[in-house]
Design goal:
Layout: E1 6-9, E2 12-18, E3 23-27, H1 31-40, E4 45-46, E5 56-59, H2 66-80, H3 84-87, E6 101-102, E7 108-109
Antiparallel strand pairs: 1-2, 2-3, 3-5, 4-5, 6-7
């Protein structure tokens, strides 16, 4: 199985390149938005049975507007990032104390 480059946020798929056909798989906010993109811009967005029931669309890279692609990537990031409640216990979400510095006396102290 050939793997293609992908971006994951918090262990969730944000987007990935796809070959055969060449496209970018993008996460969207929900199935309603997915359907709106598929029906509103069929020349740009499509899907395959593999993605049925999931909030992902495939975008034809040669057909998508670069500004719209940027907006969809921002949305994909927002949809994929962990919620604040799930980040609560992670080291990156905990409050960090100021780093210790070495004073002229040689003892560690915290900056004021």
């Amino acid at each position: 199985m050939m793997r293609t480059p992908a971006l994951n946020v918090g262990g969730r798929g944000m987007c990935r390149l796809r070959t055969s056909p060449d496209a970018l798989v993008l996460r969207v906010s929900d199935l309603g938005e997915r359907e709106a993109l598929l029906q509103g811009q069929a020349e740009v967005f499509f899907t395959t049975p593999h993605y049925d029931g999931y909030p992902y669309v495939l975008a034809r890279m040669e057909a998508i507007d670069p500004v719209e692609l940027g907006e969809l990537l921002e949305e994909a990031w927002a949809c994929s990032r962990p919620s604040a409640s799930s980040r609560a216990g992670t080291p990156s979400a905990t409050r960090r104390t100021a780093p210790r510095t070495v004073s002229s006396a040689g003892r560690g102290s915290r900056p004021a």
